[in-house]
Amino acid sequence: MDAIPKRSNATERRGGVQIGSPKSRPHTESAIRPEKVIIRASGFSLFYGEKMGVSDITMEIEAGSVTAIIGPSGCGKSTFLRSINRMNDLIPRTRAEGLLAVGGQDVYDKRTNLVNLRRQVGMVFQRPNPFAKSIYDNISYGPRLQGIRSRTKLNAIVQQCLEDAALWEEVKEDLHKSALALSGGQQQRLCIARTLANKPKVILMDEPCSALDPLATARIEDLIAALKGTYTIVIVTHNMQQAARVSDRTAFFCLGKLIEYDLTDKLFTNPSEKSTEDYITGRFG
Amino acid sequence: MSVRIRQVWDRLFTVLCSGSVGLLIAVLLLFLVPMIVKGGKAVFFRQTVEFRKMQRDLFGRGDLDSLHEAIARTGQARQEVLARIEQFGRGIDTKLLSDEAKDAYRKYGLELRYREVSREEYSRLRAAAKDIRDNFLAALDSTEEAAANRFLDQVDLHRDSPEFQATAVETFFTLSKQYRRILDEMDLAHREEYAAELDIVKTELRNLLGPLPGESTPPLPQDRFGATRWDVAKKHLHYLLYQTKWVPGDSGDGRLVKKEIRRDDPEAGLFAGTELAPLFSMMEKNLERMLEPEWTVYGRYFLDDSTSGHYFGGVGPEILGTLVLTVLSMCFAVPLGVLSAAYLVEYAGDNIAVRVIRTCINTLAGVPSIVYGLFGLAFFVLIVGRPCILSASLTLALLALPVIIRASEEAIRAVPQSYKEASMALGSGKFRTFLTVTLPAAGPGILTGLILSLSRAAGETAPILFAGAVALGPIPDLGLKFRWLFQPTRALSYGCYDITVGDRLAMRVPHNQFGMVFTLILLVLCLNIAAILIRSRMSKKLQGM
Fold this sequence. Notes:
The structure holds two protein chains of two kinds.
Chain A: H1 7-16, E1 37-48, E2 51-62, E3 66-70, H2 77-84, E4 94-102, E5 105-106, H3 114-120, E6 121-124, H4 135-145, H5 151-164, H6 168-171, H7 184-196, E7 202-206, H8 214-227, E8 232-236, H9 240-246, E9 249-254, E10 257-263, H10 264-269, H11 274-280
Chain B: H1 2-40, E1 44-47, H2 49-59, H3 64-92, H4 94-113, H5 119-141, H6 145-156, H7 170-185, H8 191-209, H9 230-241, E2 242-248, E3 256-262, H10 277-291, E4 294-297, E5 306-307, E6 312-313, H11 316-347, H12 352-365, H13 369-378, H14 380-384, H15 389-414, H16 417-425, H17 430-459, H18 462-465, H19 492-501, H20 503-508, H21 510-542
Antiparallel strand pairs in B: 1-4, 2-3, 5-6
Helix pairs in contact in B: 1-21, 2-3, 3-4, 3-8, 3-10, 4-5, 5-6, 6-7, 8-9, 9-10, 11-15, 11-17, 12-15, 13-15, 15-17, 16-17, 17-21, 19-21
């Protein structure tokens, strides 16, 4: 909570640290070095039929960092997240404009291989959604899709991923039991482990803790901290404390637009936009 | 007050709900219990010695020695009855007597030829014998007792003449004596009536005891044996004992009422006072000794081929045929149905065309089965070239398809989007996702549709009526050359229909008719239990148990 300033403080500071016009592009006080950029959105918009999902998003995400996206419900943060690995394709009549690139590859290019893209950009969902298979089969699902058949290789991958997801100690005896027998928090870590098995560059997390109790949430957050550096993590969350705890940078979305994008400390202590301040201080949202 | 009323309503609702379930169970029992009891009679019943004979002759089963003993025992019990019917038959059916008379005359002619007699003597004796014969035949033909006796007197004139001693002509005198005795007992004016009734009595005796002595072995197996089952025997005994007559009723308005009269009834019975009369009480008293009924379990009913129509044997080929048809139709319908459902849910979206398709499918599910039958005849049979297993199972598949599509559609739609997303996010395509995630998750729902349509396909008669079912036909050998695909087959539902519409058959083998229904119910039950077990295993797996 300390990171979130009182409203009065924020207004005071705004006078002093006003940077650019309200319409200015995300402030990059500590700009990301170009070679470190892994996800680049430039004037990116996504429409559901006629309805606008997100519009004109321009932001860059640094490789190996944790980026949080916050914003009120329906602001397009999940839409943007799901655009990064094109999960929105599952919804009929979606249309994208502008540029969105992962590792230099245009995501919405017609020639983009969705399978490769999704292998590089893994995703963890709001509700834990393990397959109704054994733990082992859940983890090995991705590698098997890639054609890995060797049992020893798969065993190694399963163990490695579960260890990385801090689940190995808990389930190593029950690898061939159904994943659905696990608790909610364990299931979510299993889903993360399953994503890791694909060796992605980026992991997208769509409110991964919203269905979990505080203890399980804490473990997931620890896990995120541990995975940072190896993987680029983009996390959408409703929980501003969580964003403040786990992320390096935070983007604030509102009504389908990117309002502010900055270092987390900076955004929470000294937001440059009025609506950001209103949101993080609890005026709305 | 209003709270009380609401409570009353709640109570009432509970009572109504449980009441309707109770009613349902009652109706189900009311339907199933008689069906099972009647059908069970095909397997548990009292067999007679005729049944053992049949099993021995047609299937080569049973111990020959003990069977021979039983045949000897029952033969003894039957002896008197059979003798009586033969004796009485001579009087009624004069053909036998006249044949014997003609035969005797012919024999006498041969005898004469080998005797040393002059030409004149030969002609005289021959003429005399001819005269005797003609008089006897005239006696047989005359419808008045007096006239008949007069002719017989003419025959007996020669009884003491020495020239006929120890020749074939003596036969005439024995015959005349027999006929006189018959004439004493019988009213010649009613001979036609006697003849007609005697035919019935003989038929029923044949139904009870098998072919009568002196008759040649009938070509059809169903005529070779008497009553093989005690319940059937009792029915035929009733037919034997009672004659159905339409007589003026008591109301006096000339309306006729049906009345059953015992054939040996001292007042009204036709055969009362005749030589045949004791036969009826004898049959009634001694039938058990004649047939030796004993309880048996005919377990091979479910395996045996039926012999000569559905008269004897079991329903083995029918069961096999039903299974083949059902399984084959499911092989056609399930992949097609599931794929269509997948398309409708995953790809088709929601536009006018899809809605029209969906409506059509729902309509198809309600189309009467005879329509499918006619379509099968007009389409599949025409394409395949003849009514056969292939065309029949294709028709059944068509019948099952709408139910499967509907159930699968609901099941696939009910698979949480998050499952599919998880798979997609791991980089699998639509096909892989469908195969590895959606299909297993929708499995129990799809199986439900399969159970529903499987039961229907197994039990339907109309679709296979023209498309490949026969009452009697080859047994599918399931060989790898698939020739059996192009043969017609028997099926339980069709067999039951066939027996039921063939009324003679239904009367003679009601146990078979219900036995088929019973077997069909058992079969469907077994298939359903298998499917339900698989489904519960699937859903347990889905729930992580």
